[in-house]
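Bit of a strange request maybe. I'm writing a small parser for structure token strings and I need a real example to test against, not something I typed by hand. Could someone generate the tokens for this chain?
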Amino acid sequence: MAFAPLVSLGREIDSIDNLFISPSGRLTLVETKLWRNPEATREVVAQILDYAIRLSRRSYSELEKMVLGAPFGSFGKYTKIYDKVSNTYPSEVLPQEDFIDEVQKTLKNGRFLLLVVGDGIRENIESMVAPLHRFPQLLFTFGLVELQIYESPSLPGKRLIVPQMLANSQEIVRAVVRVQTTGEARINIEMESETERDEGISARRRVLTEDEFFGSITNQGSKDIFRRMMDSAKEIGAIPVWRSISVSLQLPDPRGSRQNLTLFVITTAGEVYLGWLTEQLERIGLDPKLGIEFVIKIGALFGVTNKRNMPDSLARNLTAVEVNQRYDDFFEIIGSFVADVKVKCEDIQAKN
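Reply from user aminoacidic:
Good idea to test on real output. This should exercise your parser:
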């Protein structure tokens, strides 16, 4: 599903009870209500639609500013939406530029998941969803979730909460018609159904196989360089983690945890980039400065600085040709970093 997995952006953001985002850049709005009167359900449906319309008028930068300034945000030390999403789901998130583009498209098209969640929905469902058809310009998906709450007789104060999706017995099909002019008195009309959109999203987010990855690289020179890079990375203990448009070469934690350390990422566009090491090193109990020093050394090799707000990333991506020109030096730095990590992990084990 394109809206999953969910990363919380916080509560009471522009009056939205709960706002979530996915690694693919889709937004989920959740409005919660206790149903005290017969009008409550219809009111909250109108309310969440109003929130969706307001949100669709925001840009990515406005959304980020709004999220970071929320009174009940969940960002902690993060200063960017992408920082939190990439550290929460590093193997599923899109590259930063693609992620921002997808969020911007999501906002522009109103392609949100709208969820109304309550403890008892007693309205006629068909009458409730009728207002949804008044906004054909927004490509949202709507859901009603009823929470069935049970008290535990043996554990006072404990509750079992069972969510139930309503309206799942009928399928509501919405289609979007796009009319495009070419400037030559010709009009191109396309119609896209929700199913077709979702299938397209799944295809973009599916994990590539090794053959598919290399088959997507059009430049034979880049393809050969990347094959060689993967072989060299494997020789020093790295494993490939395949994504939808890239492969990440990661070093498993020498002490056996589930945390991997991202050495570098190569993409089907023929580029190489670094990222996430400081957070990953911290999770296995190592000094995050190791990751920053590693990136500084790689950057110095190619005359590229670190990003100001993300010191474990370079200010720009490297090309396959660049890496090939300093290939041995590139892997000497990586090999030295891997050896340093292993030694420090052994020291920690010896102390324990």
